[in-house]
Write a structure and sequence with these properties.
This protein is mainly α. 73% of the residues lie in helices and 2% in strands.
């Protein structure tokens, strides 16, 4: 009984049941139109046998039955499209390609039907990793102005995969113009990718030019500010680096865990530790995680002593319980603890460390993908800027 509720099985069953329902409607309609009792009986027999296979978790046998139904209905394009889609969802991409190629080769298709079949074939090629074929097919569809938005979206996805950011930008702009849907944030990310590439090759002027394009597309682009801060730091322009990193925090406080380390380094080199303390106090009020609290605790320890740091951290942990914060508090009190109490603290520190091991620190707001490190593009759903820190007692 438990297997029946397997979510992977339902990923197949839902579209398959939709197909089965649609085939049932076709059978009923043809029964009325043709009044052919023997043929309807044969079709109905196949249909209900296929439906029985689905309900008894035998999808392979169900597909064989529905393939026979497709043979009975050679003129029914929708049946073949649905079958091809089912094959692709199940990972049987070769069979999906054959079904859709067969459709495309038929001479009696309308332009609309051929376009849909080509679009499905392009998705088959993408799933199979045949990106050059998929790209050529989608380019043809865009040139014909047939299902252009869908084709453009696929092309943008292909160029992202190939890291051809210039083509990705061009097609994203075309998609924005065609649909009216803003692609500004995505385009800004593409320019940031180009800026990062230029920065890694030491082409800082080129990187800044790309950042200008990113800010033109999305004013307040947090990633753009971060890259700018790194560029200034690499040139030892520490005050400018401080300003850029502070702008990144102001643009999106959720990225504090990624920004604080280089920002504190810039404060140190710029000799602006008083400014650092004031800025961290401001961030602690806005950000609910423990990261800025720990940074401020270290500053208090250096400038005001360990006792003041421990008092501050203890007060903050009452407001925002955190395993990471507890570990920092244990470490801060270990030096002044001896004997059995020290041994107990060491055991407690090991236990808290184990709680953190293997925990996801970030999660995609779009698909729920969990990760230990931050990604600008979600590795699962490929959305940009949706991976955020997890605010919980264990994770933050």
């Amino acid at each position: 009984m438990n297997g029946f509720f397997d979510p992977l099985m339902w990923m197949f069953l839902v579209p398959a049941l939709v197909l089965a329902g649609w085939l049932g409607w076709i059978i009923g309609r043809r029964a009325s139109a043709r009044r052919s009792g023997a043929r309807v009986t044969e079709l109905s027999s196949h249909y209900f046998r296929g439906l029985n296979y689905l309900l008894n978790e035998q999808p392979d046998k169900a597909i064989e039955v529905f393939m026979k139904l497709a043979e009975f209905n050679r003129d029914t394009v929708e049946t073949h499209l649905a079958l091809g889609n089912l094959f692709r969802r199940r990972g049987e991409v070769d069979r999906a390609i054959r079904v859709h190629q067969h459709l495309v080769s038929r001479s009696n298709l309308s332009e609309a039907e051929r376009t849909v079949a080509l679009l499905e074939l392009g998705e088959d090629y993408m799933r199979a990793g045949l990106l050059d074929r998929a790209e050529a097919l989608f380019d043809d569809l865009v040139a014909m102005d047939a299902h252009a938005p869908s084709a453009l979206r696929h092309l943008v996805a292909i160029y992202q995969h190939e890291r051809d950011w210039h083509k990705a930008i061009g097609h994203a702009r075309r998609l924005e113009k065609m649909t009216g849907e803003s692609q500004a944030a995505t385009i800004a990310q593409f320019y940031c990718e180009l800026a990062e590439q230029s920065r890694q090759h030491g082409a800082r002027a080129e990187a800044r030019a790309y950042l200008d394009e990113a800010f033109a597309s999305q004013p307040g682009c947090v990633r753009g500010y971060m890259i700018s801060g790194h560029l200034y730091a690499e040139e030892a322009q520490w005050r400018d680096a401080v300003l850029a990193f502070e702008q990144a925090v102001d643009a999106d406080v959720d990225f504090v865990p990624e920004i604080l380390s280089p920002l504190l380094d810039a404060y140190t080199h710029a000799g602006q530790m008083e400014r650092a303390e004031k800025f961290l106090q401001h961030v602690v009020e806005r950000y609910h995680g423990i990261t800025p609290v720990l940074a401020l605790t270290r500053l208090y320890s250096q400038h005001e002593g360990e006792r003041a740091a421990v008092e501050f951290l203890t007060g903050q942990l009452r407001q925002r319980p955190s395993v990471r914060g507890m570990m920092a508090l244990i470490d801060a009190t270990l030096e002044s603890t001896q004997g059995e109490a020290r041994e107990n603290f060491l055991i407690l520190r090991d236990l808290t460390r184990k709680l953190l091991e293997g925990r996801a620190m970030y999660r995609c707001n779009h698909c729920g993908f969990g990760a230990k490190a931050h990604h600008w593009q979600c590795p699962s759903c490929k959305s940009w800027g949706t991976v955020r820190p997890i605010h919980s007692v264990v994770s933050e």
